[in-house]
Prior knowledge:
MetI-like fold; about 80% helix; mainly alpha
Amino acid sequence: MSEFSTALALDLLRHADPTLVDIVLRSLRVSLLALAISGVLGFALAALITVTRFPGRTLLIIGINAAMGLPPVVVGLAVYLLLSRAGPLGDWGLLFSPTAMVIAQVVLVTPLICGLARQTLEDAWREYAELFASLDLGTLRALSTLLVETRHSLLTTLLAGFGRAISEVGAVLIVGGNIAHVTRVMTTTIAMETSRGNLALALALGFILIFIALLVNAGVFFIRELAARQGA
């Protein structure tokens, strides 16, 4: 049975099954859009925390660090309540749509990107603070220089965020509903098809997720190698 399912899964991949392609493309669209939004929000907040001092800053950092480990199902439940008909955004009709899935992934990924980027930027800020002061650089110029100097680490942070987004299942299942041709993505399809006994499609999607994970890890490795060579 296992060998037969694997053979069928490879056949789906080899012939680029339309259902398979539809699910993969939707997964990539949702996760990449969520990553773009999370990247802007996370980097902006990390930069703000790095270069400014304000009341409640420490509590904000603690909150961000705590949010990095939020259970996805809790995030999914919170977004569901927010977007449901009885919720404050219920009139927008976003529940069980790709937009709702993007929102859930943004809530999950933004703290991760912000937390990692903040640590990177703060370490670099302490290292270059005296140099920036001696050159009399303004805050914006100093920050832009900092972003350039830490670009490899920040790119690695984005890859980590993408890995979290593309592999998420709990939150997107709650707010997306796993509707065929609308909100069905790789992770939710794997869970559903496995419970149905349709292992071929589940395995095919699993192979693709593993391949994406390998690409992300390879990207992180080569970015670090490039940074090490340039710093040598």
